[in-house]
Amino acid sequence: MAPLRLGILGSGRGSNFLAISKHIQEADLNAEIAIVLSDKPSVMLEKAHELGLKNEFVDPKRFASRERFDEALVSRLLAAKVDLVVLAGYMRIVSDIFINAFPRHILNIHPSLLPLFKGLHPQQQALDAGVKESGCSVHWVTSELDSGPIVLQKSVPVLPDDTEQSLSARILVEEHTLYSQAISLIAKEMESR
Fold first, then answer.
1. 110 is annotated as an active-site residue
2. Could you give the domains of the chain?
3. pLDDT one-digit tens code per residue, 54-65
């Protein structure tokens, strides 16, 4: 079966992007990264360049609105003929223009067991709530923040001496495996259609 063509969007250091790339290189994931886009001149883009992947910084300040910015991203993703859009540490809320361009073809990973602890600082939200476990969720992106259908989840225990940083680090380790597992599952579903 043909590899799933991924369009990856991120805003930061790109650890999930690198984990996905590693799983592809090790043949654990039947996919290829068609394009990497960032709204910041990020470390992720430097890594994509080093890996020889098509990549681009798209500056949101150059656009009159969030919708015009999203249209620019959509045009680049369509030109790259992506099958699936993967948000990997992408820190912008996408507009309906973006969502409607790729219906049920946009994935995100969130560091909580959704539907718990949506939005920013979910690890601290988990600590503040006193829960015994947290984790990460791969979900489809919809117009409601962190509320789309869940593809896969992985839990991690919350330890008595956890800080936001220590809990985040343990969850991130699981994210690096879970995201590729979810993409692989989706690739198989798309192939069987």
1. yes
2. 4-192 (3.40.50.170)
3. 999 999 999 999
